[in-house]
């Protein structure tokens, strides 16, 4: 069995985090999220109607599921901080997935605004999980700001392209002192398994589950892939590739005297 | 300004180029990873019609990937039918002898109550162009009244100056729609004979002013049928391409109002039939995976039921296109005829049946701070 993951004060036995957007119905979303075994589920503040008993939240009301409000839609640090405060009040959690994308086309995170907002939100007592570029220096800067984990992207959000930023992700994982959650771009279970094999602490998957023809079974597949990838990482894998075996061993001169 | 780009293109040349596109060019466009303006022209060409099923399939896939299996709901709220323009196709045209009405604050609240009861969180405010009755003074008065009731406010009003758009943004307006109607400069003059709207270039530069004012979302469209719908759509694609690159923080949406032959009304120059409208919607999606595509109640029940799955992202329902239409004066004259008169509950059911989640709220006032 793989070890559990601790972020701030919470311990997770599942390393598959999920999102709530893009599903064809709230009941399918609920079933898929339950099937995924996910214990941390992100919810866009903009989809929540704080004045009403929002029915989206009713579908997430399960003891094993913690909510991770996100600031999707915010384009500046200022907007993100306001949204975070509203989310903390509305969802009664100080956990926050910090997302700032001024560009609505590719939804690229703004590194400067993200760092500014992270610094401020940490001071305000939030458990901040920032969505960011796979930029090793930025991830260290965010870590220094006091974030609880970093969430670098594998590929543009919603693109299902897999770990296009692999070499950078490997550096981020090597030098991180906080959990690394690979977010965005994970399109199939094999991508999630790969993320876990390289040592990511968790992955966040939304589009690949929500938009799949059978979200429930694909959620199960992701659950198993994440688990398998993590066990493999912990167990250690055989060195891949064709082993170099020189026809005349390079060190043979030592014995062939 | 887009006018610089616009001046480099000639209507007749573009038109000929679209109609000369071959099926092979359309197939190439279909297979392209990143589709260009020339690809868009190939996809709206008559030569692409035999590829409609493949286009629909790809459009569905791309839309689901980007927007998920969701459809956003919105409703128009007509504030006034006063208008100083003469437009050959519009029910509110100055030369139409109809009773004119601009909603008072109290009446607006009555209308809002009905929309809220239906469940709406995203509203589209509509007026004619009449500086005295529905100018900036009126907007400054009524928008603060409307804002607390909705998560997202869009407006379809007369072209304004950049400073006025900034004020609207500060008042809480998230989206501005302005349709060019047609990019055919000389025919534009035939259809807009009087009033400020008759100034083609001022209208053409309007999305630039909206973009410079940092309005979050800009809506574009042409009145399909006013001129050759293919050429007009190609120019709209050029316009979108320019705007997206220039105002990279703005979102964009496209609408598809079509002019159809009806007794006493303006005869369309070209008729766009249902298959062609599907082709156009799919071509837009294949050209731009991120643009929002919007469908109004002008279209028939059957068309709307089926288009949900093919690329659109937002839909209106239960709409009234007359000021006071929801509560105050339900019998007054509409701007255009509603074809699909089903209630929002009925449309919700249709969306669910299609395997999509109807979304009432996908924005929050907190996300727009000034």
TrEMBL record, chain B:
Keyword Protein transport: no
Highest taxon of source: Bacteria
Residues in Radical SAM core domain copies: 69-304
Database matches in Gene3D superfamilies: Aldolase class I
Tagged with keyword Cytoplasm: no
Cofactor: [4Fe-4S] cluster
Keywords annotated in UniProt: 4Fe-4S, Iron, Iron-sulfur, Metal-binding, S-adenosyl-L-methionine
PANTHER family reported in the protein's UniProt record: 2-IMINOACETATE SYNTHASE
Protein name: 2-iminoacetate synthase ThiH
């Amino acid at each position: 069995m793989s070890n559990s993951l601790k972020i701030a004060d919470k311990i997770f036995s599942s390393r598959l985090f999920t999102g709530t957007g893009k599903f064809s119905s709230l009941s399918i979303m609920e079933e898929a999220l339950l099937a995924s075994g996910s214990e941390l589920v992100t919810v866009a503040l903009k989809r929540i109607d704080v004045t009403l008993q929002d029915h989206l939240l009713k579908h997430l009301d399960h003891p094993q599921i913690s909510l991770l409000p996100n600031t999707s839609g915010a384009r500046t640090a200022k907007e993100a901080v306001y949204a975070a405060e509203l989310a903390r009040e509305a969802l009664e959690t100080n956990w926050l997935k910090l997302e700032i994308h001024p560009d609505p086309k590719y939804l690229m995170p703004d590194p400067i605004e993200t760092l500014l907002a992270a610094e401020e939100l940490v001071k305000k007592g939030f458990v901040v999980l920032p969505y960011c570029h796979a930029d090793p220096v930025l991830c260290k800067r965010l870590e220094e700001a006091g974030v609880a984990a970093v969430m670098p992207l594998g590929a543009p959000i919603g693109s299902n392209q897999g770990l296009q930023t692999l070499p950078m992700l490997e550096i981020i994982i090597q030098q991180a002192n906080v959990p690394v959650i690979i977010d965005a771009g994970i399109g199939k279970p094999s991508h999630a398994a790969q993320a876990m094999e390289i040592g990511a602490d968790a992955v966040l998957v939304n589009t690949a589950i929500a938009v799949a023809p059978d979200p429930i079974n694909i959620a199960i597949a992701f659950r198993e892939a994440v688990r398998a990838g993590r066990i493999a990482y912990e167990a250690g894998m055989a060195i891949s590739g064709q082993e170099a075996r020189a026809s005349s061993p390079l060190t043979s001169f030592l014995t062939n005297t | 300004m887009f006018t610089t780009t616009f001046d480099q293109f000639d209507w007749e040349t573009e038109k000929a180029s679209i109609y000369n596109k071959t099926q092979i060019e359309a197939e190439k466009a279909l297979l392209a990873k990143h589709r260009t303006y020339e690809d868009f022209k190939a996809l709206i060409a008559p030569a692409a019609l035999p590829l409609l099923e493949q286009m629909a399939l790809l459009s569905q896939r791309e839309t689901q990937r980007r927007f998920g299996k969701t459809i956003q709901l919105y409703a128009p709220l007509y504030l006034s039918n006063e208008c100083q323009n003469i437009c050959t196709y519009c029910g509110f045209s100055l030369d139409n002898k109809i009773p004119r009405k601009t909603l008072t604050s109290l009446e607006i609240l009555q209308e809002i109550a009905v929309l809220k009861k239906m469940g709406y969180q995203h509203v589209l405010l509509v007026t004619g162009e009449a500086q005295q009755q529905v100018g900036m003074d009126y907007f400054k008065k009524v928008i603060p009244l409307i804002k607390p009731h909705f998560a997202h406010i869009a407006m379809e009003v007369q072209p304004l100056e950049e400073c006025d758009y900034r004020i609207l943004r500060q008042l809480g307006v998230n989206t501005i729609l302005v349709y060019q109607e047609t990019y055919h400069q000389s025919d534009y003059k035939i259809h807009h004979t009087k009033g400020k709207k008759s100034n083609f270039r001022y209208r053409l530069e309007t999305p630039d002013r909206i973009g410079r004012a940092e309005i979050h979302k800009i809506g574009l469209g042409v009145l399909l049928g006013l001129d050759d719908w293919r050429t007009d759509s190609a120019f709209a694609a050029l316009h979108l391409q320019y705007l997206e690159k220039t105002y990279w923080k703005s979102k964009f949406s496209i609408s598809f109002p079509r002019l159809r032959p009806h007794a006493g009304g303006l005869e369309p120059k070209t008729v766009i039939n249902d298959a062609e409208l599907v082709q156009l919607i799919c071509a837009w999606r294949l050209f731009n995976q991120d643009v929002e595509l919007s469908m109004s109640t002008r279209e028939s029940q059957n068309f709307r039921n089926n288009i949900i799955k093919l690329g659109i992202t937002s839909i209106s329902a239960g709409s009234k296109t007359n000021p006071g239409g929801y509560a105050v004066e339900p019998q007054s004259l509409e701007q255009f005829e509603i074809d699909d008169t089903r209630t929002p509950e009925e449309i919700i059911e249709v969306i669910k049946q299609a395997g999509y989640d109807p979304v009432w709220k996908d924005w929050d006032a907190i996300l727009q701070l000034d």
